[in-house]
Design a protein that fits this description.
Layout (H helix, E strand, L loop, with lengths): L8 E8 L5 E3 L20 H4 L13 E2 L12 E6 L2 E2 L4 E2 L2 H10 L6 E5 L5 H4 L4 E5 L3 H10 L5 E5 L5 H9 L3 E7 L2 H8 L5 E4 L2 H9 L1
Parallel strand pairs: 1-4, 4-7, 7-8, 8-9, 9-10, 10-11
Antiparallel strand pairs: 1-2, 2-3, 5-6
């Protein structure tokens, strides 16, 4: 994605294992996309190193530390921190997650996306923070409570152009996501957000170019 002409960057879901190591993984359960079981946060590093995706090439899981951030200084990285462990029914350790993230020595072009407002005070002094929500009014409330937040990340379907511009006029950024088709890309672009996070990067770049 980073090497495709026209790409400005990537959004990455990040989860922490039992040993405090960070992994790139979207789903709550390993069972859905891999030959593993349970949750990232309920498994050890050694176990996760043995897991393979249920794809044609059976790729291994990737750790966040493996990404060559410094090779892409002109790109943006949005790290969406997954704070909930479905298997245990609890949030993971804030302190351990922050320590693991800090240990990687992320460059300035990395921002953090948080969907749990309770995590914001622990990260706001050290990272550029965006708040993710499916509720526009709730996101606005969090922006008022935490004025140092850079902006919000929200589903394209739940906001209109007026709401998008309302955030822009407050000198905040707004990124729209869950965009999976050229039609969806065009719909999102008419709202004039700070940017879009598309599931189909090539379609998004083509729509923007046209």
């Amino acid at each position: 994605a980073l090497t495709i002409p026209g790409s400005n960057g990537v959004e990455i879901d990040v989860q922490m294992d039992l040993n405090g190591r960070l992994w790139l993984f979207h789903d709550e359960l390993l069972n859905e996309e891999t030959n593993g079981i349970n949750c990232i946060s309920s498994n050890t590093t050694e176990y996760l190193k043995t897991i393979r995706y249920s794809s044609l090439n059976h790729e291994k899981l990737s750790e966040l530390s493996q990404i060559p951030f410094h090779n892409f200084k002109d790109k943006r990285f949005f790290l969406d921190l997954k704070t909930w462990n479905k298997c245990s029914g609890n949030t993971v350790s804030i302190e351990d997650f922050k320590a693991a993230l800090t240990a990687i020595d992320l460059p300035e072009n990395c921002s953090v996306i948080l969907s749990d407002p309770n995590w914001i005070p622990f990260f706001i002094d050290d990272f550029t923070i965006y708040f993710a929500s499916d509720d526009f009014q709730y996101a606005k409330t969090i922006l008022l409570q935490e004025p140092r937040i850079k902006g919000i990340v929200i589903r394209n379907a739940v906001v209109n152009k007026a709401q998008t511009q309302e955030i822009i006029e407050q000198n905040k950024e707004i990124y729209l996501f869950e965009i999976r088709s050229p039609k969806g890309v065009k719909s999102a672009l008419t709202k004039r957000p700070s940017g879009i996070i598309s599931d189909d990067l090539r379609a998004a770049i083509s729509a923007v170019s046209n």
